[in-house]
Each structure stands twice: as C-alpha cells, then as structure tokens.
Specification:
The chain is mostly helical and 228 residues long. It is built from 11 helices and 3 strands. Helix 1 crosses helix 3, helix 6 runs antiparallel to helix 10 and helix 10 runs antiparallel to helix 11. The longest helix has 26 residues. The radius of gyration is 20 Å and the shape is elongated. It starts with a helix and ends with a helix.
Length: 228
C-alpha cells in the first residue's frame, strides 16, 4: 500500500476507534502498539499520531506517553471527525447537532448570498436548481448529492461572511452522510425540491428575506426527517 494511503488507512481505523468509544478518553497509545496492530512502521505510527493530535484527539504527556482525549477537546468541525462520528454509534447525535448548526447558519448565509453573490453565482444557483429538480425526480441520488453540495457551498461562500464560508466542508459531510448512510428517501421530497428552487430564485433576485425563509424551510425539513 502506498505511503499516503497507508497513513489514511491507519488514521481512519484509529479515528473510528476513538470516536466510537472503543478506545476511550484517557486510554494510552504507544507507537509500538499501533505498529503491531496495524502492521506499520514507527514512522507511519508517529505521523498518524501527529495527525490525531492536530485534530485534538490525542495528546503527548510526559512520563505517560500518548493519551486519548475526550470529545470536548476534538476539532468537531473537521470533516474527518464528522465522517468518523457518522460511521459510529453516535451517528444520530452527530446528525442532530450538525443539523442544528445548519439551522443556525444556513438561512443567514442564504440571505447574505442574496445581498453579496456575484451575477455568475446567481446564474449558477438557478442552473443548479433546475438540474436538482431533474435528478431528484429521477431518483439519481448521487448526482443530486453533487448538485446539492455545490449549491450549499455557493451559498455559504457567497454569504459575505467568511465564518459561514469556512463551514462549507462541514455541510458537505452531513449532506453526503445522509445519502451514504441510507437516510434519504428514494427521491427528494417535493417540498425540498421546491424550496431549493425558491432559494435560488430569491438569491438571483436579491431578495434576502425570501432566501432566508426558503433555506429555513429546507433545514426544517431535514430536522423533521431526523426526528425520532
């Protein structure tokens, strides 16, 4: 296995083990133990530990070594951490908290895009809405997902708020997670398609209030779909 792929394989395995609780907070890790468990060199194990440390998931302590940290220390907005949590037993809680974050941010981002988006972005949003309608009604979920991710990315990055723009990858992960975990209906509900079209039209027209309202409806539909 090539070097980078090997690093990623071990990183995924350890990230999943930590986020699932199989390796709990306070548990010690050693480079030799990681090497033996995953069949990798100390060099690879050390690099993986550096990556996990950068994500706030482990730390090095004098006389103790490498120790797993609790979730309150994790970089919970990193797409890798989100992906691991969505694949573990805490999936429902992760989807809930991410959806709450989206509900707080995305309506304001859509309103901002209505005020700040370039003509090119406004045109692309209208085109995306048309293509989302076509692929959604056809049940082509992967194609729909690609278009959906692009629309939300454009709205966040065109909002005029760099903090919102920095969340584009986070929203992409939760959109992908719903699809790949089988939490989407066979085709998007008509209300969702209509509201995506409404967002695109409102942004294109510079109507910030309508854009905010339509995006609130989109995220509200997701919250209802995830409700127990």
């Amino acid at each position: 296995m090539p070097g980078p792929a090997l690093h990623e394989s071990v990183l995924d395995a350890l990230g999943l083990a930590i986020t699932s609780g199989d390796v709990p907070p306070g548990a010690p890790l050693t480079l030799d133990g990681i090497g033996s468990a995953h069949g990798v060199s100390r060099t690879v194990a050390r690099e993986v530990m550096r990556m996990l440390e950068g994500l706030g998931m482990v730390t090095s302590r004098r006389r103790v070594g490498i120790v797993v940290l609790g979730m309150d220390r994790w970089n919970v907005l990193d797409p890798r951490v989100i992906r691991w949590r969505l694949r573990g037993p805490g999936r429902d809680d992760q989807l809930r908290t991410l959806t709450e974050l989206r509900h707080a941010v995305e309506p304001l981002a859509a309103a901002g895009a209505a005020r700040h988006a370039t003509p090119q972005v406004r045109g692309e949003l209208l085109d995306l809405a048309v293509r989302m309608r076509r692929t959604g009604e056809a049940g082509a979920l992967e194609d729909f997902l690609d278009l959906d991710v692009r629309m939300h990315e454009l709205l966040l990055r065109s909002s005029g708020n760099e903090m919102f723009g920095a969340l584009a990858d986070v929203v992409a992960e939760v959109l992908a997670g719903r699809t790949h975990l089988g939490l989407m209906p066979p085709s998007p509900v008509p209300e969702a398609l209509a509201q995506h079209e409404a967002v695109a039209r409102a942004v294109a027209a510079g109507d910030d209030a309508a854009a905010e309202t339509a995006m609130s409806a989109i995220v509200g539909e997701v919250r209802r779909a995830l409700a127990p």
